[in-house]
Amino acid sequence: MKLKSLLFSLLAASVVSSAAFAQTPIVIKFSHVVSVDTPKGKAAERFKELAEKATKGRVKVELYPNSTLYKDKEELEALQLGAVQMLAPSLAKFGPLGVKEFEVFDLPYIFPGKDVLSSVTEGPIGKGLLKKLEPKGIVGLGFWDNGFKVMSSNKPIHMPADLKGQKLRIQSSKVLDAQMRALGANPQVLAFSEVYQALQTGVVDGTENPPSNLYTQKMHEVQKHVTLTNHGYLGYAVIVNKKFWDGLPADIRTELDGAMKTATKYANAIAQQENDKALEAVTKSGKTTVYALNDKERAEWRKALLPVQKEMEGRIGKELISSVNKEAAVLGYK
Ligand code: LMR
User: Fold this and answer.
1) pLDDT in tens, 106-131
2) Is the minimum distance from the CB of 264 to ligand 1 under 6 angstroms?
3) HEC profile of the chain
4) What is the rounded distance in angstroms from the CA atom of residue 105 to the CA atom of residue 189?
5) What distance in angstroms lies between residue 96's CA and the mean position of ligand 1's atoms?
6) Are 108 and 231 in contact (CB under 8 A)?
7) Would the CB of 104 count as within 6 Å of ligand 1?
8) Nearest Cα to 104, choosing from 298, 332, 324?
9) Which residues contact 234 (CB under 8 A, 6 or more apart)?
10) Ligand 1 site-directed mutation target among 30, 31, 34, most atoms within 8 Å of CB
């Protein structure tokens, strides 16, 4: 009788513990630096919803927006160490990781239209770039769009020379450094979370970003002038820790891949409208003057910044730059 009850308790305990094991979800910590109310913030939320639903709760996605967990440089280190599993850093932030080719996206005027961008990110060029992350212990799952950048400062910006001598905050990309120098400005690398305060206290005079980032970080409250230069692009690569990803049960990985594909479509569908809405809100705030370049001014900006493409050939690779230009030609751009 005693033996019977002992066996029964052992059996019951093993049922309980395997049930508990089955219920312990796989946690994906997804850290990012922007507000929830941006294309990236919204797409991350959509991914969480889709991933948790598709895996029936076997995966839990914890979102850490607005640099609440890590700032720019730290988040990449944290991903490599496995302290977080997923990030979506801007393409301008992969240089310090040793993958300089991602800076091709930062070249001024490299994308004459969003269609060229899509054929790059969704085609072999994009796939090839993501592959370069693997030796770093990172798997690239896709590209998320944000938008083309505006310039801001406390002084009016019409011609490139208007930024001469100004201290301008940039992301860690060497292409962005060259771009600001081509304007005669002094670039300064700062983490995204530090930009508002740096602008407010005058540590830097101005910066660049798509309107969605400018507005949600309230930069327009500390910048009197915004100019729609659209001189360069800002987008993201969604990345995961390779060891974590490869170690997932195959069925879970397939579900997460599917969720990521849908979230990516969503991200790319909302980016433009989110930026349009943000620009409208900036204009309505009355705190900053929004200026649209005329044709003559736009030509001056191109003249000042196009040489950066040639100057950066050594860093990015001539072939990569010309393969992007070829995509543009195929789509009918001259
Ligand atoms: C920036 O640092 O300006 C951007 O990369 C922030 C972001 O992630 O959009």
Assistant:
1) 999 999 999 999 999 999 999 999 99
2) no
3) CHHHHHHHHHHHHHHHHHHHHHHCCEEEEEECCCCCCCHHHHHHHHHHHHHHHHCCCCEEEEEECCCCCCCHHHHHHHHHHCCCCEECCEHHHCHHHCCHHHHHHHCCCCCCCHHHHHHHHCCHHHHHHHHCCHHHCEEEEEEEEEEECEEEECCCCCCHHHHCCCEEEECCCHHHHHHHHHCCCEEEECCHHHHHHHHHHCCCCEEEECHHHHHHCCHHHCCCEEEECCCCEEEEEEEEEHHHHHCCCHHHHHHHHHHHHHHHHHHHHHHHHHHHHHHHHHHHHCCCEEEECCHHHHHHHHHHHCHHHHHCHHHHCHHHHHHHHHHHHHCCCC
4) 18
5) 15
6) yes
7) no
8) 324
9) 90, 91, 92, 146, 147, 148, 149, 209, 210, 213
10) 34
* Model pTM score: 0.93
Tell me the pLDDT tens digit for each residue of 49-72. Answer: 999 999 999 999 999 999 999 999
Strands 86-87 and 225-228: unpaired
| Ligand 1 atom nearest to CA at 191 | 2
* Domain coordinates in residue numbering, the chain: 24-330
pLDDT of 199-233, one tens digit each?
Answer: 999 999 999 999 999 999 999 999 999 999 999 99
Residue nearest to atom 3 of ligand 1 (CA): 192
Q: Kindly give the distance from the C-alpha atom of residue 57 to the centroid of ligand 1, in angstroms, as a whole number.
A: 31
> CATH second-level architecture of 24-330?
3-Layer(aba) Sandwich (3.40)
Partners of 168 in beta bridges:
187, 206
326, amino acid identity: K
Verify whether ligand 1 is closer than 6 Å to residue 213 (CB atom).
yes
